[in-house]
Structure formats: structure tokens, C-alpha cells
Design a protein that fits this description.
Layout: H1 2-16, H2 20-32, H3 36-47, H4 52-70
Helix pairs in contact: 1-2, 2-3, 3-4
Length: 71
């Protein structure tokens, strides 16, 4: 369905022009699908490439995944 189409679109966009915003949105999509491990892996990969201003956003998303997985 649409979720799979969105996932494929994000993957394609990230391959064409990698950026943390698209990767972050892709992680959100994975989180919504309850694919927490893939979402976490993706966020950890982009964590090194974000600016300090956006680092807290990525860290908060990582913390949310750990919290959700453990409760």
C-alpha cells in the first residue's frame, strides 16, 4: 500500500541525495511500522552527520525508540 510506496520513495531519495532530514523521516516511518531496530539503526547512522543544532532531535528520537522498546 501507501506505506510501502513511501518507504521505497524515502530509500530512493536517500540514495540519490543523502541528507539527514530524509533519513530522519524514513526512521519515523520505520518507527510507525514498529520496525524499531531498523529505525534505531538508521538514526545511529545519521547521528554522526548532523549539526549540533539537530543532534538533540536525533538523540531524542533514539531515546524514544529505547523507551518504546522497553515498555
Amino acid at each position: 500500500g501507501r506505506s510501502k510506496e513511501a518507504e521505497l520513495s524515502f530509500q530512493k531519495a536517500i540514495k540519490i541525495k543523502p541528507n539527514w532530514e530524509a533519513s530522519f523521516l524514513y526512521s519515523s516511518l520505520l518507527f510507525d511500522k514498529k520496525d524499531f531496530d531498523s529505525s534505531l539503526s538508521n538514526l545511529q547512522r545519521i547521528k554522526a552527520s548532523v549539526t549540533s543544532g539537530n543532534l538533540k532531535t536525533v538523540q531524542a528520537a533514539i531515546a524514544a525508540i529505547y523507551f518504546t522498546k522497553n515498555f
